[in-house]
Amino acid sequence: MTKLIIIQHCQSEHHINNMSGGWTDTPLTSLGRKQADLIGKRLRVDILNEKYVLYASDLKRAYQTAEVIGKHLNLEIKIDKDLREINTGIAAGKTKDWANAHRNPRTEKGFNLDYREFPQGETWKQFYFRVCDCMERITKSENHNYIIVTHGCTLAFIVAWWLKYDVQMLVSSYFSASPASISILQYKENYQQNVLKSFNDTSHLKDFGK
């Protein structure tokens, strides 16, 4: 394995209709489909003659983004549920207003790894370990490059996994990317380093805004 291209899913209905994120399963908007098309066109040029395996979260907004990209690259999608966003438990399928009214209260300042935002959901620590286990499983073959289509917080934790973060390091740092962005993780053989080559690249969206 030498390269991981991480895609944050494109604009979804939950971005514009006051629905909560997490495990709420909303499709792409028409703009989101245009954004996915631009990503596919960009990658078709950028990774010409390179071989990749395409993975995606099973939630519609990620899977539909991967569908469009896959058509441009002639790649089939491998679905992995563990690439989902953080599990929001009872808030899945609810509006943002409902979620705000039913969120578990925070009892301390700062980022608490053991905080469970909603009943039946994950803590941040559980989420991080789920993402790490998923990426270790997906990338077990050293003979593949990967395109991973996923969600905002999942992307942040994939970057942390790649950079070999201890879980406690998440308390004081975070990688915040944008919908329809491209981030590239690459292994530098001569120094044996895991490199964050580029992050949150949205230059391909210039015709539709970022």
Automatic annotation (TrEMBL):
Q: Which domain of life is it from?
A: Archaea
Spell out where the chain crosses the membrane: 145-163
Q: Which UniProt keywords apply?
A: Isomerase, Membrane, Transmembrane, Transmembrane helix
- Keyword Transmembrane present in the record's keywords: the answer is yes
Extract the Pfam families matched here.
His_Phos_1
Q: Where is the signal peptide?
A: none
The record's GO molecular-function terms, alphabetically, read: phosphoglycerate mutase activity
What EC number is given for this enzyme?
5.4.2.11
What is the name attached to this protein's record? Answer: 2,3-bisphosphoglycerate-dependent phosphoglycerate mutase
